[in-house]
Write a structure and sequence with these properties.
CATH architecture: 3-layer Sandwich
Order of helices and strands: EEEEEEEEEE
Largest sheet: 4 strands, antiparallel
Strand content: over 45%
Number of strands: 10
Number of domains: 1
Shape: globular
Bound molecules: FE2/S2 (inorganic) cluster
Structural class: mainly beta
C-alpha cells in the first residue's frame, strides 16, 4: 500500500514544477496541461535535478546537466546518456489539494 503525501493546494500550484521530499527522496511534481505528474527528481544518469530542466514537447523534461530526456508521465528515459528510467508516482487532486503516492 502506498501513502499519499500532500504537495500543495492546486490553486497555489502555479509554477510548472515543484519538488517534494519524502523519506530522503526528492520527487518532482509537474503541472502539465492535462494534469499533475510525478517522477524522481534525480536524473538516472547522474546527480542532476530534473525539476531544474526544461519542459519540452509538452510532456518531456530535458536534464539540465547532459540533456537526457525523460517522459514526465511515465519516467521512461527517451535519450542518451540516460539508459534507465526514473520512477514515476501516481498523483491525484482531492478537495483542492495535489497528492503524490509514495511507497510506504
Ligand atoms: S545527469 Fe542527467 S543526463 Fe547526465
Amino acid at each position: 500500500m502506498g501513502k499519499w503525501i500532500e504537495v500543495a493546494a492546486e490553486a497555489d500550484f502555479t509554477e510548472p514544477v515543484r519538488v517534494v521530499e519524502y523519506d530522503g527522496i526528492d520527487i518532482a511534481v509537474f503541472r502539465l496541461e492535462d494534469g499533475f505528474y510525478a517522477i524522481d527528481d534525480e536524473c538516472s544518469h547522474d546527480e542532476a535535478s530534473l525539476a531544474e530542466g526544461e519542459i519540452v514537447e509538452q510532456c518531456q523534461v530535458e536534464c539540465p546537466l547532459h540533456g537526457a530526456r525523460f517522459d514526465i508521465k511515465t519516467g521512461k528515459n527517451l535519450s542518451f546518456p540516460a539508459v534507465v528510467p526514473v520512477q514515476a508516482y501516481p498523483t491525484k487532486v482531492e478537495n483542492g489539494f495535489v497528492y503524490v503516492e509514495v511507497d510506504d
